[in-house]
Specification:
With about 170 residues, the chain is mostly beta strands. Helix content is about 10%, strand content about 45%. The chain is globular.
Length: about 170
């Protein structure tokens, strides 16, 4: 066994993996839903999202079970992935920490599609109904089948890489 290999049953290299993942660019957005008991909006900032399949059209998100939106989102059975553009980065700040929780849905461009909250004017709003849930470690992987989709056609997507927000935009020939 190499010095860097871990024997089975040893703690994970979470700090090292976190550092390595900083180099993996990803879109960042706000995943929103609602509390079915109160109707109140819930949401969180997230870069752990990915397409799963085109048949059926589906997306996956990884959500920490200790997060404030987790239980309500599971009970609601639906969520919306709101991809942001670089001008909407201020929307992300209250969703990225517990301290900003009271400011999460205060911008005037939050709307509802049925009971699910979404950010109007975002480059994309991907509405999903939870079809599968897989628990692993501290997170649940939720696979949602897309039931509604909104897109502005914009190609300026807010991303996360090297520990900072940035633009994920197509390269242009000059």
């Amino acid at each position: 066994m190499a010095a860097d290999d871990q024997p089975p049953g040893k703690p994970a290299h979470d700090a090292q993996l976190k550092q390595v993942l900083r180099h993996l660019p990803a879109p960042v957005g706000i995943v929103s839903s609602y509390d079915p008991d109160s109707g109140d909006p819930v949401g969180l900032a997230m870069s752990a999202l990915m397409p799963v399949s085109l048949e059926p059209c589906s997306m996956a998100i990884a959500i920490n079970r200790s997060g404030s939106a987790h239980d309500a989102m599971i009970r609601a059975g639906r969520f919306c992935i709101n991809l942001l553009d670089s001008t909407q980065h201020a929307h992300l700040t209250p969703f990225a920490s517990f301290a900003g929780r009271s400011d999460r849905f205060t911008h005037s461009d939050w709307r509802q599609h049925g009971p699910v909250w979404f950010l109007e004017g975002a480059p994309a709003n991907i509405f999903c109904e939870i079809r599968q849930r897989l628990s692993y470690g501290t997170h649940d992987l939720l696979i949602g089948e897309i039931y509604h989709l909104r897109s502005t056609g914009g190609d300026d997507i807010l991303g996360w890489a090297n520990g900072a927000l940035g633009r994920l935009s197509p390269l242009r020939d000059t």
